[in-house]
Amino acid sequence: MTSDLTDSPARDADQPPGPDAGGSGASGTEGRSLPPALIDRPDPGQAPGQEADVPAASPPLPALLEALLLVTDEPVTVLALAEVTGSDPIVVEQTLLELASDYQEQGRGFELRSVSGGWRMYTRSDCAAHVERFLLDGQSARLTQAALETLAVIAYRQPVTRGRVSAVRGVNVDGVVRTLQARGLICEAGQDADSAGTLFRTTPLFLERLGLASLDDLPALAPLLPELNELEEASTST
Predict the structure, then answer these.
(1) Which residue from 172, 182, 188, 176 is spatially nearest to 151, judged by alpha carbons?
(2) Does the structure show a pLDDT above 80 at 172?
(3) Going by fewer Cβ within 10 Å, which terminus of the chain is more open, N or C?
(4) Angle of helix 61-70 versus helix 89-106 axis, rounded to 10
(5) 66: CB partners within 8 A, 6+ apart
């Protein structure tokens, strides 16, 4: 008896298998096929010769949290960070605590604090004098046109959020607002009830520099500015 594994001479393709070629009928080895689970079939939606797309790996959670906290100017809650990163809130909070501890141990120029129910990056207190000197450098210089326009919007619409000011001017005003704050012309005035954004108003120094006794002495420029409801309608339509 010959084994199926023994080398045998090649048979003519037109010659039917003999009775000793590994069994009779469908029970022979040559007529068998691999089980469906062992066959490497291509993805139905995959073109021939094309490899399946591999999803890009998401950055580590600490890196994601750092990136988010670097672009915000207000404390962000753990729940908001968890929703954006798709992580468990408990894991997010633990990661934030670890980041804050790491920054402190490494002696970084910034620190991560939990304030007002959220988390935010701050410069270290022992760097305050140098930061203040940097921000106030050139304070005696005249305000730019962008700063004057932003200051006018805040003066006539106060208290007003940064987003509202940006909507009126049509440009981002983050840098200009920081400049006006550094010069003491505007200050924070709580949070907006609807958007939770920081509200800004002018300071007594603003009145002093303009030689005004009160905001009632401002020139009648308010009618020239668009109403807030008009801005909301324009925002909705676009």
Answers:
(1) 176
(2) yes
(3) N
(4) 80
(5) 99
Look-up: residue for tokens 């910034």? 110
User: pTM for this one?
Assistant: 0.42
Mean pLDDT along residues 1-10: 44
Q: Which of 107, 127, 147 is the last residue of a domain?
A: 127
- Listed in order, strand segments (DSSP E) in the chain are 110-115, 118-123, 160-161, 186-191, 198-202
Examine the fold and report which residue of 78, 94, 127 is the final residue of a domain before the chain moves on: 127
Could you read off the pLDDT of 136-163 as tens digits, one per residue? 665 556 788 889 999 999 998 899 999 8
What does the alpha-carbon distance between residue 50 and residue 60 come to, in Å, rounded to a whole number?
29
Give the chain's domain count: 2
Pick from 140, 122, 120: which is nearest to 131 by CA? 122
Q: Which domain holds residue 74?
A: 61-127
CATH of the domain at 165: 1.10.10.10
